[in-house]
Amino acid sequence: MISIKNKEKEACSVMLVDMNGYVQYETSIEPDNNLDLDLHSLLAGIYTLIFETTTTSFTQQIVKY
After folding, report:
1. Secondary structure element (H or E) that encloses residue 50, with its range
2. Does an H or E element contain 24, and which?
3. Rounded distance, CA 40 to CA 58, Å?
4. Global pTM value
5. Are 62 and 46 in contact (CB under 8 A)?
6. Residue 27's closest CA among 62, 40, 45, 36?
7. Domains, the chain, ranges and CATH?
8. Cα(36)–Cα(3) distance, rounded to whole angstroms?
9. Which class for 47: exposed (0-12), middle (13-18), buried (19 or more C-beta within 10 A)?
10. Nearest 10 degrees: Cα torsion 17, 19, 4, 53
């Protein structure tokens, strides 16, 4: 389980993309809200977590084993 908090002043879109480029999960988080992302159903591998607002972008690699 991964817990994500949106510290931005605007809504943030969140995508979890596998190494083949397929979006495994996509949602948005309102300002100052949390998102709990359950990874149990995903296969082992490397994923990219992408956070985007209209002014910022951030990516984080996740390894599930």
Report:
1. strand 45-52
2. strand 23-29
3. 23
4. 0.85
5. yes
6. 36
7. 2-64 (2.60.40.3080)
8. 4
9. buried
10. -50
Q: Which residue matches tokens 């979890």?
A: 16
* Residue range 3-54, pLDDT digits in tens: 988 888 899 999 999 999 999 999 999 998 999 999 999 999 999 999 999 9
Distance in angstroms (rounded) separating the CA atoms of residues 61 and 32: 23
The answer to whether 34 touches 14, Cβ cutoff 8 Å, is no
User: Given phi > 0 = left and psi -120 to 50 = alpha, else beta, which region is 45?
Assistant: left
Cβ atoms 36, 3 nearer than 8 A: yes
Q: Is residue 62's pLDDT more than 90? A: yes
> Which residue matches tokens 């956070």?
51
Rounded CA-CA distance 23/49 in Å is 10
